[in-house]
Description:
Rossmann fold, Dehydroquinate synthase-like, alpha domain
Amino acid sequence: MWEKQIDINKIAEIRAKTTVYFGVGAIQKIKDIAVNLSAQGIRKAVVITGKSSHIKTGAWEVVKKALDEQGLGYTMYSKVTPNPTVDQVDEAAKQAQAFGADTVIAIGGGSPIDAAKSVAILLAYPEKNARDIYEFKFTPEKAAPIVAINLTHGTGTEADRFAVVSIPEKEYKPAIAYDCIYPLYSIDDPALMTMLPPDQTLYVSIDAVNHVVEAATTIIQNPFAVSLAGETIKLIHKYLPHAVKNPKDLEARYFLLYASMIAGISFDNGLLHFTHALEHPLSGVKPDLTHGLGLGILLPAVVRQIYPAKSEILADILAPLVPGLTGSPDEAEKAYDGLRKWLKDLGVKERLTDEGFTEKDLDKLTQLAFETPSLELLLSMAPVPATKETVREIYNNSL
């Protein structure tokens, strides 16, 4: 049993802070949120979105009506791309500051929400810029209130204190984690996610799987993170094929969204290690690489590397994906092969070479994993020593 790998003398910090309105039709709760914001004296919002999903899903129509009814002014920044950049954050922050925004509303997946968290910091520190945040030139202790309307079931960022934004000229993709950027309110409405195409449905769900595999196996893991990991993987294994086959299956979307949310809370508590630390250089170098796909490519090799150190926990939480694991440390190869099969059965057959990487890139990627701000901290959370040789081996086994 995985419980034997928990140190009961270690004091765990358990986090679950954001108020999340969850369920079909939850978008209507924006009306109550708008009332609460108005009662707090908030008068103007900056709305942070991507190009069109806020329109196509119908989310903006509901949000706009709620803001209008409460007399809340708004300005919209709709230029956030996948793997958002510090330049986008700065542009959005300047627009928000010029408008006099005192709250931030994000509508979208992880990219708009993470960009919005960053803008919220800059509203509280107008003399700073996004590079200051992501090069860790200061430590934010405050931010404007954040409302996150989530449009994907993968990142969990609507319920945690993390954000990721890229610095293009350095090919850095750092992560931040501050208490001040927990959303005040979040909306998780599976009815807003029925338009996600099959490939994105796969990739965002793979992201959630990676969150919990890492959170359950860091050196600071705790029973809360591990329990959430097991539930996350069980639900994704059961409902992901249904959502891929029938994108409008609300029951499948509901439980995938629930899995994603609790996965976000899991890694908010247990943190992350190899897979995210190694994926960020991949999409830092190639911004068009979908984050969840990069994680999926790396996952089997990471599990192979860490399995001997966390065999009982991994055997337990991976049981739906890789049946027959007993928790013996010598099963690393079986776990690796089982995860490769699960991904292939889902239709994820890509390797790093398919995304344009070659053996010549391994040294650069390894260096980025250690020099990108924040990633060395993630590597320090790994259950086995995160040497450059280990990192390079994981990349090499993913080619």
